[in-house]
Every structure is written in C-alpha cells, then in structure tokens.
Write a structure and sequence with these properties.
Elements: H1 4-25, E1 38-39, E2 46-49, E3 53-59, E4 74-81, E5 88-95, E6 138-146, E7 151-162, E8 165-170, E9 175-180, E10 198-202, E11 222-227, E12 234-238, E13 246-250, E14 260-267, E15 295-302, H2 313-319, E16 328-335, E17 341-347, E18 357-362, E19 376-382, E20 392-397, E21 403-407, E22 414-418, E23 424-430, E24 438-443, E25 450-454, E26 459-464
Antiparallel strand pairs: 1-2, 2-23, 3-26, 4-5, 5-6, 6-7, 8-9, 9-10, 11-12, 12-13, 13-14, 14-15, 15-19, 16-17, 17-18, 18-19, 20-21, 21-22, 22-23, 24-25, 25-26
Length: 473
C-alpha cells in the first residue's frame, strides 16, 4: 500500500506531467487576448467566446443520488481523477451556507429529510434560540461526472454541519480541504462547538465523511488552501480586511490530522508590512506604496494557541511582524510565468482602486527548513478598476499557465484570464438575471474541461472548447 509520502511524490510528478501536456498542446495561448469577444447565450446563462460551449451539471434544490436536496450557495470546488474510470472525474464542491441562512438546505425546507442523516455525521447543531434543534447547513457535496457524455452520474452529500464553507484546496493524495469562513463559538447562533476550521473530505468517499476539524491548522476566517506536492506544506488565505497569509507544516506530510506548525508570512526587513496598498494608509507605520511587479524576500513567524477562542490569530501575527493583506481569497498551486512552481493568491479588495490584487509566493528550495535563498512574494497584478478586474475571488491555474479568476463584483460578473504577461481577458460572463459571483473554477486532469460554479442560484457548469485558440483574438 502506498504511503501518503509516496503519494506526495507521485502527485508532484503528475502535476509536472499535467503542465507539460498543457505546454505542448496549448503553446499558442500566451499571446494577447484583448480582442476576445463573448457570444450572448440564447438561454441567458453563460456568455462564452465563439466555439466554446457549456453544460449545466448540477443545480441547487434538485434531488441528489442519496435522496438529499442539493444545497445552495455553491462556492469553492476541486476536481480529481476518478479512482477506477479514466473517462470520469470527481468534483468536491463547497456550500457557503452561513448560520443565519435558512434556505436551500440539504434536508428540505421543513427538514423532512433530516431523520435520514446519522447524528454522528453532523458536525454541529443549534441548541438555543428560535432555531434550537436545527443543524448548521454548510458543508460539501461530491459529484461524479462522465467527461465523454458530459453527464453527472452521481451526486451526494459528503460533509455537513459546518458554517460558511467558502473555498479550500485539493491535496496530492486525493482529498479536498474545505475551509470555514465563519468563526462561531459555543452559544453564538446556537452553536455547541467552535467553528472556523479546515476539514478534509476524501474525493473517493461515497457517503458523508466524519466531520473532523483540523484544529492545528488554526482557527481564523479561512478561505482557500493549496498544497505543495514537493513538501506537503499547506498554504492558506484569510478573508479578513486585516488578514494574513499562512502556511501549515505537517508533522507527517499527507497526514494533516496528526498536527504540525502554523506560521504567518512576513516580509524580510519590513516588519508588520501593510500590503493592502490603500493610499489612505501610506503615511502609517508599516505601510507604503507597493508597485506592480515588486518582489519581496520573505520569512515565516510561528504562532501558538492556534485554536484560540478569542479569534485573535491575525492580530497577534501582525503584532509579531507578519504582513497584512486585504481579504485573501482564491489560492492555487501551479507554474509561474518563469517556469517555476508557485502559489498564486488573490486579495479581493486590495490595491489603490480596492478592486483586487494578484500575488505569487515562490517557495524557497529549502521550504520549511528556511535556508538560503528564502522564499519570495511578488505583486503580479493590481486591478486599476472594476472594468478590468472586479473583486477577484477564487482562481485556478490553467494547464498553459494563465490564471483563471472568478469575479465577485457588484455589477456584471466575469470569469477572467490573466496571462503571465499581465494581460486580462474575458473568458465568460454570468448572463443570469441574478448576476451572482463565479466561484470554484478548476480544470479536469486532462485539461479538456473547465468546471466553475455560479453561487446563486447554485449552478455548476462544465465548459469545453478550443482552449488552444485562447489569446489569438
């Protein structure tokens, strides 16, 4: 039987092969995309470039294979190779249902399906207030998709009883890390337990998994995660106006439940750096203008009492010298424009225009051991305004090296591409009358299909087309 350490090494090799495939078949995709036009969708759902098409794989409030209802508030999502069928993939999808939301639940509007759920599979119930006796509805669902037919062949609940499951990340050993954005404490909204943790959902699980919070990974406003296949280190963003960028060094790579060290990123020579780039703050100690393309040498700060009920990790980390970001959200591992593996992340309201920043963290060759040279942090892109990129949220690294960025803006929401040369282009527009945010973008292992969610009304799309033509417009 393969150990998780072996699987980590295999994952690194598989990722390299995936990138090589993308570079070979999609080499033309690095040219400018400024001329790309979207074709209006007659169905009023998704506008795409000419030659591209979509299928709706799943909608909220539909009956799933296990008899439960598809929950609403679709959000982050990961794609995995199917364990037995090369023509199929598995999607694990978040549902960002907060404690005060009482619609689009998996158990029906009157909880008529709740008695079908074993109590041990539910992380938390409300015990007080008007909603006493009702569960929390956040969690994940798992879908099996046939790539040849484009059909969803199975869909089931896979985690439930958590709150605000916003984004997360895939692991090289085939699981999804789902992250709670809401930090409830016992008594708040009727909760019995603390919330604000990461949970692991194996993609191969055929039912609801045991809800085990990975407490050593910290209790904060979790957003997304990415795992470096070379080291097993997990990087995490924080959706907080005064958030930090985190890494978790597991005691045993691939076995996160066995504990590890939680650390926050700091800029060498600039303690408590304010990287939000808000002009009103440039006169403050620890703040100054950061230029697009500017690169910083980094260091990492250990944090203790990481599951503190005081919800004070970000403040303590910043006071200890960690760098501050504005609403870290989407995070993904991939290959940088320089051909190096890196972790890319969005800060949704960072920047002078407060419409978003895209950052890249390049690990050091001795990542986790902190030798020389150290890791670096680069401001890849700062949105000059909402017309270019409006509140960048989830992201994916495409097989050919572009970043695919989901918008969570106030107007029309787009799925945008960002090339290594800094060109932003439109890949899709949410044409639905609700105009909700895009989220959960991820590619199939063979690079043929882009999966993406629209949060409300919840819909999961599979997009296919001539990817090699991107950028030739």
């Amino acid at each position: 039987m393969s150990t998780r350490r072996t699987i980590l090494k295999q994952g690194a090799a598989s990722f390299a092969a995936f990138v090589a495939l993308g570079k070979g078949s999609l080499a033309a995709a690095h040219t400018t995309n400024a001329g790309m036009k979207l074709v209006p969708d007659e169905a009023g759902l998704l506008d795409l470039p000419e030659g591209f098409s979509y299928r709706v794989l799943s909608r909220s409030r539909e009956v799933m294979s296990d008899g439960f209802m598809t929950p609403g508030s679709f959000d982050g999502m990961g794609c995995f190779a199917h364990p037995t069928d090369p023509n199929k993939v598995t999607l694990v999808r978040n549902h960002e249902i907060f404690a005060d939301m009482d619609h689009d639940m998996p158990f029906g509007d009157d909880l008529e399906l709740l008695d079908r759920l074993p109590e041990a599979k539910l992380y938390d119930w409300r015990t007080t207030g008007e909603d006493g006796g009702r569960p929390f509805y956040g969690g994940t669902t798992t879908l099996t998709v046939d790539l040849e037919s484009g059909e969803t062949v199975e869909e089931h609940l896979s985690l439930v009883g958590t709150t605000g499951n916003c984004a997360g990340g895939t692991t090289p050993w085939g699981s999804w890390l789902t992250c709670e954005e809401q930090m409830l404490q016992p008594g708040e909204s009727g909760a019995q337990k603390h919330h604000g943790f990461v949970y692991e959902v194996p993609s191969a699980a055929r039912g609801i998994v045991d809800p085990v919070p990975l407490k050593a990974m910290g209790r904060f406003v979790h957003e997304a995660a990415s795992v470096d296949p070379a080291t097993g280190i997990v990087y995490m963003t924080e959706d907080n106006m005064h958030g930090l960028f985190w890494r978790f060094i597991p005691d045993v790579p691939g076995e996160l439940a066995r504990g590890g060290r939680l650390q926050a990123l700091a800029v060498e020579g600039w303690d408590s750096a304010d990287l939000r780039n808000w002009p009103v703050d440039w006169s403050r100690p620890g703040a100054r203008r950061v230029e697009q393309g500017e690169r910083f040498v980094t260091r990492w700060i250990d944090l203790d009492d990481v599951e503190s009920p005081n919800a004070d990790l970000a403040r303590r980390g910043f006071d200890a010298g960690a760098a501050m970001f504005c609403r870290g959200e989407g995070l993904a591992y991939g290959v940088s424009g320089e051909g190096k593996s890196a972790h890319f992340f969005n800060c949704t309201q960072g920047g002078v225009a407060r419409t978003g920043q895209v950052w890249r963290y390049d690990p050091s060759p001795q990542e986790g051991g902190e030798g020389e040279p150290q890791g670096t942090l680069t401001l890849l892109h700062e949105s000059p305004g909402a017309d270019t990129l409006d509140l960048c949220d989830n992201l994916a690294v495409s097989p050919w090296g572009d970043l695919i960025i989901c918008e969570d803006g106030m107007g029309q929401n787009y799925l945008r591409g960002l090339t290594p040369q800094g060109v932003v282009y439109d890949l899709a527009r949410n044409a639905h009358e609700d105009g909700a945010e895009f989220c959960g973008s991820c590619f199939s292992p063979d690079g043929s299909t882009l999966f993406v969610n629209v949060q409300s009304p919840g819909m999961t799309y599979a997009i296919t087309g001539p990817w090699e033509a991107l950028g030739r417009g």
